[in-house]
Amino acid sequence: xxxxxxxxxxxxxxxxxxxxxxxxxxxxxxxxxxxxxxxxxxxxxxxxxxxxxxxxxxxxxxxxxxxxxxxxxxxxxxxxxxxxxxxxxxxxxxxxxxxxxxxxxxxxxxxxxxxxxxxxxxxxxxxxxxxxxxxxxxxxxxxxxxxxxxxxxxxxxxxxxxxxxxxxxxxxxxxxxxxxxxxxxxxxxxxxxxxxxxxxxxxxxxxxxxxxxxxxxxxxxxxxxxxxxxxxxxxxxxxxxxxxxxxxxxxxxxxxxxxxxxxxxxxxxxxxxxxxxxxxxxxxxxxxxxxxxxxxxxxxxxxxxxxxxxxxxxxxxxxxxxxxxxxxxxxxxxxxxxxxxxxxx
Length: 345
Fold this sequence. Notes:
Blueprint: E1 3-4, H1 6-13, H2 25-32, E2 36-44, E3 49-58, E4 64-69, E5 73-74, H3 88-100, E6 103-109, E7 129-130, E8 139-144, H4 149-155, H5 158-169, E9 172-176, H6 180-194, H7 201-212, E10 217-224, E11 227-237, E12 240-248, H8 257-271, E13 276-278, H9 287-293, H10 302-308, E14 314-317, E15 322-325, H11 328-339
Parallel strand pairs: 4-6, 12-13
Antiparallel strand pairs: 1-2, 2-3, 3-4, 3-5, 6-15, 7-15, 8-13, 8-14, 9-10, 10-11, 11-12
Helix pairs in contact: 2-7, 5-8
């Protein structure tokens, strides 16, 4: 069984420069501190080398759930390249690992968009089935960072450009920061106001420390007259960057600090060599529906879409999620559990 250590996995990924953030060793270490165990596997052949960071979550009675977030990874694949899915040799080793750990099923959310999928279509490969439960957002907005700053700004909606400049004129200052406590205070205020759950303080501190040591993360805090009013944590891996965590307090929202925060994060990503900025998560509807309804809806991710749509990115949707079932009866119980809203991975 070709299981890799953390350092061996990092060496493998050094030849996969555009692997997704959620397949990095740092992400696996983060999740390993909060209820998961990361196991890294590579299967080599004469034609290609495939690897995956698999997360296992313990369940009662010695059972587990297995999950490959935004993988598997093909060594040498370039960003945007049309990539086939691994062959059976790879999945044979994955199955052996999952069965040894008594996984009920394996969930795979590939790092592929519909426009990048293989010629066989967007359905699951042999041995998988469509899953009704996604862990990561299915749809997102990706901003192209390859042009200069003025051209990036020009692609944004006029109101967004106005709000970015308004924030500066209204005295908002955005700077890098290591003040995780202030950021967490802002997250708590945002979660209470907008009624969504957040991770623990230790989770954000660990995420920051793991990625910051390799300059793959930055925390920005927006202040007005010295008072923190909003914050944003941005991550980078290869040529891509991701906006994962953001927060703001209700006071001084009219000064539009969150718009300036996003712009400063995009500029940081460009300086880090990124060509894409992923705004990470909007409602899972076609663009026509999103544009027709966003002005009248604020539930779920709709308010977030109203904000993110202004940054001039492309709406994309991922393929999957796909499940590979090992214990059918328990898998059916899992689907009922998720369907009732009792829990999630």
